[in-house]
């Protein structure tokens, strides 16, 4: 049996029988009690560097209006974990929140969104929308004091809510726009996926890669594998082939679940997808598209493992205590347990989780 099949079999066995769910960085609630000393009130999107380091984005207080940073997750001598600030987001001296993170080799790519009040024709009250998007590129191979260690660029595409991020084999960066469907309702043509190509001397070319009409209801998590992009959007994960010209090709549905569920970010490894799922946060829009959908009163909070080839669910793990999974990464040794999942929480109780097998399950 190939390693990938062993991995899938062990992981599914673990999830269906119950994982060990460990909060490795404490959030705002610990054992049902408020934790005012948390260093990670909210967390999102994880990424590994080639040299084995692991990073997430997150921040303080309410997501939109407080300091937000790229953090490195480091393991202490006693086996505990700490989040250490790598860089804090800033746009013209004001806060922005890091909404996306990905990596290629030893280079990190992160998006930082600044929100502001904007008036729309026919809308009675101003709305908070993205007024600036700043892309951070951190080259971990460069000295920390080098001007090439952290470089930034402002997106020229307006009204773009950066979310999922992925880099292809050519080094092109793809960013999903989580409000592309919503802005289309107001007559704005903002792409569901934006493509950034990097040229010589720091030049950046932006391309509207996937139109809003093809991105589903709520573009979110984004992953690249074997010449295709995988895009989570509301209750679906789309597989989008990249054609020989680098454009969006055939689009198929790799996975679909109940319309009441929002698939946030996910990870894919070979034939296995691990996805964070919560109750939809846009029920009115869901009901306008799916009139027969039933939105439950209780919260949905789980990580689901999926066969990427068939779309079948293989197992799931629920979260309790107010935690709401927002992104998932497969664990990598030696920083994390083998056959584990690393889970962030952006809008629940924050912190960082590791889902792992008990030792008896490995026998």
How far is the first residue's CA from the last residue's CA? 16 Å
Q: What's the β-strand tally?
A: 26
The SSE order reads HEEEEEEEEEEEEEHEEEEEEEEHEEEEE
**Residue share in helices?**
under 10%
Shape category: globular
Low-confidence stretches: 359-363
> Radius of gyration, rounded?
20 Å
Total helices: the number is 3
Largest sheet: 4 strands, antiparallel
The strands making up the biggest β-sheet line up spatially as 1-26-25-24
Structural class: mainly beta
Strand content: over 45%
- Average pLDDT: 90
List the helices and strands and how they pair.
Elements: H1 3-17, E1 20-25, E2 29-30, E3 33-34, E4 42-48, E5 54-59, E6 68-75, E7 81-88, E8 97-104, E9 107-118, E10 127-139, E11 150-154, E12 162-167, E13 173-177, H2 180-185, E14 193-198, E15 204-210, E16 219-225, E17 228-233, E18 236-242, E19 248-256, E20 261-269, E21 272-279, H3 283-289, E22 301-307, E23 313-318, E24 325-330, E25 341-345, E26 352-356
Antiparallel strand pairs: 1-26, 2-3, 4-5, 5-6, 6-7, 8-9, 9-10, 10-11, 12-13, 13-14, 14-15, 16-17, 17-18, 18-19, 20-21, 21-22, 22-23, 24-25, 25-26
Report what the structure shows:
This protein is 8% helix and 48% strand. Residues 359-363 have low confidence and may be disordered. The relative contact order is 0.16. The chain is mainly β and 363 residues long. The protein has helices at 3-17, 180-185, 283-289; strands spanning 20-25, 29-30, 33-34, 42-48, 54-59, 68-75, 81-88, 97-104, 107-118, 127-139, 150-154, 162-167, 173-177, 193-198, 204-210, 219-225, 228-233, 236-242, 248-256, 261-269, 272-279, 301-307, 313-318, 325-330, 341-345, 352-356. The radius of gyration is 20 Å and the shape is globular.
